[in-house]
Fold these 2 entries.
Entry 1:
Amino acid sequence: MTAPLVTEPIVDTQTIISWLNETQVEIGARSDYLTQLDAAIGDGDHGTNMNRGFTAVGRALADQAEPAPPGRVLILAGKTLISTVGGASGPLWGTALRRAGRALGDAETFDGQQLVEALDAAIAGVVELGAAAPGDKTMIDALAPAVRALHDSLDAGEPLRQALAAAVSAGEEGAESTVPLQARKGRASYLGERSIGHLDPGAASSVIILSALQRVVDREQ
Amino acid sequence: MTASAPSAMKKFLNDPADVLKESLAGLAAAHGDLLRYDAAAQIVVRSDAPVQGKVGLVSGGGAGHEPMHGGFVGLGMLDAACPGEVFTSPVPDQMMAATKAVDGGVGVLHIVKNYTGDVMNFKMAADDAVDEGVEVESVLVDDDVAVQDSLYTAGRRGVGATVLMEKIAGGAAQRGDDLAAVAAIARHVNERGRSFGVALSSCTPPAAGKPMFDLPDGEMEFGIGIHGEPGRRRGPIASAHEIVETMLEAVLTDLKPAEGAKVLAFVNGMGGTPLIELYLLYSEVDQQLRAAGVEPVRNLVGSYITSLEMAGASITLVELDDELTSLWDAPVHTPALRWGV
């Protein structure tokens, strides 16, 4: 056995906490943007709601007596989102983080392969609750291609940092692909053809959340 | 001169983030005889809840539709309301707290408007309530004919029929019907109820600070919901007579009332339309229904399910039978609806 030339990044509790904090900052900074996207085809509250939720997550993390394993931190964050966001985003993102957390179990650290499994579980939770398919103009249109790219990149032997960059690019493309689509789920679907030509706010916030993960891993590894 | 832009929002506010809880505190201060506001759980509860042996009725949804739902808490209507932030569904913790607060030992009915968020949050709460040993049934309201109910939408929205369902099901619970019976009556209202809404202006959620959409002079939106979302199409503003024709045609085509049907006709203001115009619309509704062979034997005219300060109106028809009529007539005492007491 020879030691690998490059040490594969290992994700731990601090990475997850930094990710959630980075998400809080970024969602806060782009809250108005998300709300304006939502006003065009929804009900104009997406930024406000996500900001309220991730602010509460920040508080819940700060209140933790001692650092829990990463899976537990994600479950706490998910529960907090369900209790504070409302709308569809609360249950959807709350379920996503809870499922990811459960997939990680009580492991203290995990690698890229386990991360991708956790994200698979998160997407499965979102699809189960929201019954959205690719092309419905929802957060799935950003998340599904992003996680697929993460799979492909890791399978090709690329390091996690690079795989996450590929995932964010695919997520951005996926979000952009919602613009010409007619919404088939959520409030935007009430508009029928008038939903065409607008970026889906849930896809946009999904990219923000994925980018936060990518930046944190990039910085910490 | 202040530096504020000409489009700046003008509303009675302290901090936009506090609008909901400050408004609920006012509701409780004004109607302390009927209800109380549990600020920690963010719910409005009938003052004498839980009423032992009576099915509890819980409804909820985003704020901005006042008097719905808090204004319908009281005798003969809701036992509790769970208000979310403006235009945002409440969270499961609220429904759970409300369900426990009103459980009189014979189960709780959740009245859920068909919006993705409301459905998900109520579902999570109902699952938790059942785990804690409270019997819960859920009834979905989806009466808005402006939305196609198909695989390609989230399904029809719950709009005006919600108010009528809350009153009629509330009457059934008050007279002592069991949970299955109250739920069946609520479903009957939904099956025989249809609505259509129009807007003459947009509205401005306090947290957004800007109107949800721009509506140029001389234009109106057809097929709006109750969240300031634009409708399915935009058209030139027409006479009240023509607008009611369009609205009733949409409703009647879908409802397909029996020949000589008796209906409850509800002309609802969206928040920014004065009563003088709502009665003018009701006059059109009354005449046009009779001309179509439908008899409006009961009515409700006023702003009961609103979209902040939006100018606009919706028409809801519920085809009545003797039982629904007597439950509509049954005593009710809430901040927004009161008769027979």
Entry 2:
Amino acid sequence: MTEPLLEVTGLTAEFVHRGQTIPALKGIGFTVAPGEAVGFVGESGCGKSVMARAIMRLAPEGSSVRLAGAVRFQGTDLMRRSEAEMRDIRGSRIAMVFQDPMTSLNPVMTIGAQMADMIRRHTGFSARQTRARVLELLDNVGIREPQRRADDYPHQFSGGMRQRVLIAIAVSCEPALLIADEPTTALDVTVQAQILRLLMRLREQHGMALMLISHDFGVIAGMVERVNVMYGGEIVESGDVEQIFAAPVHAYTRALLDAVPRLDAEGRQP
Amino acid sequence: MSDASALPVEVSAPRPAARRAGYWLVAVGGLMLAVMLIVTAFGPFIAPYNPAAISPDSLAGVSAQHWLGTDSIGRDVLSRLIIGGRTTLFITAVAVSLALAAGLVLGLVSGYMGGIVDQVVMRALDVVFAFPVFLLAIAVVAALGPTIPNLILTIAIVYTPILARVVRGPVLSVKRWDHVEAARSVGVSEFRLVVSHILPLVISPILVETSLTLANTIFTVTALSFLGLGPPPPDPNWGGMLAEARQFMELAPLTVIAPAAAIVFATLTFIVLANGLRDMLDVGGQR
């Protein structure tokens, strides 16, 4: 087997609040191979989002988190990098797509300016090259008339379109790993499918690995090869998607699968 | 019952009316400001006399030669008003700019960094804030001497904490918004985060407070000048004119009314602007 792109071992995270510590991740470990799509499922508060941020050494807004463990990424332990080095890595080698596209864009900057900001941060592009890249990216994520739309503000876009813009920002420097934290939760069901297809297409295009985090088994199932089931800050079960669907071993996984109402199920009305 | 349901029901959001009023207030305030700026900028060309020129015609009333009469040593009141306004407004503008610059830096740093830095900065500003404005201003000017730079510095120091607080408050909430985290997750530097992803979102209350501070500062500058802590004579300024004319106000009421009216006009300009901006930009607060 090839060297994994990302190898997380014994990652712990504790929220520090007024001298008290509250554990959020209790030593999780997993690997992601280059170009692989891995799913993470679990209920709210099981540590999915904290884990996503911990890999990039970020804390959920307004909190203070103490991290420990090892996050080996492209042969280097991210926990041992300086903050400045992390800033260079964020966006260029690991990028993230967030849950709520309505609030994840700066409302007073045009989307073109926001994209340009980020591209120039990580590349030596001139203004002209940057602009060209912005238009190319917008086109690639399916925004029509990128020439005109690049100068629009976020409020002029629908939720699905904004998520496309955020994805364009995330993949603009062709990161090796994209972390999508509930990328479709805030969207309409019809738009969800489009966004998921877009993510899959970009993954193949750029050969990037994808960590797809969701509370929704349905979203995960069609997208990834391997899945990790999280509960209470731990990974309780992991393995091949089909195998877990067919024969969940852990009681929690079974409960999680049963919690989804099924159209094809017979019997009792809820 | 059936009657009630037949009634046409009108539903509207409550805000737009206040906003429309805001546009009007801003237009009026802007016009007043424009008048003031033009008179100030072209003062030496507009003023009919040298403001320091003495004439034997003292305490004269309104006449074709002296539209607003003359003061106790025969200087033209209108000319002194125009030139004196330059001094008063210059001090005000520079002092508020300094206070705004300092307030922005302190408020942004304090609000964004939080924790110990926030505590230290805010407590230090509280100390300044705790002094009554005039007491502090009088103490500083008395200690350093009544020169224009000292006056400017004093006023800047006095108003910095107020502006810093106004900046800090919304920064505390905006820094937790998703787009800031999203920007951080793609490697945007802390400085860029603050300057392009936080500051533009907190600018409205700052504009309103700056305008109010300008109004307060005009009042403070003239009051200090009135007390003799302003720029020294013979250069005219509004506060000084009031002080000099006070003893003669029964003989020549215009010598007092004219500078007083100018002070009211200037203060009102910024209050109108502040109120208009507040309504227009939808900044919370009491109406």
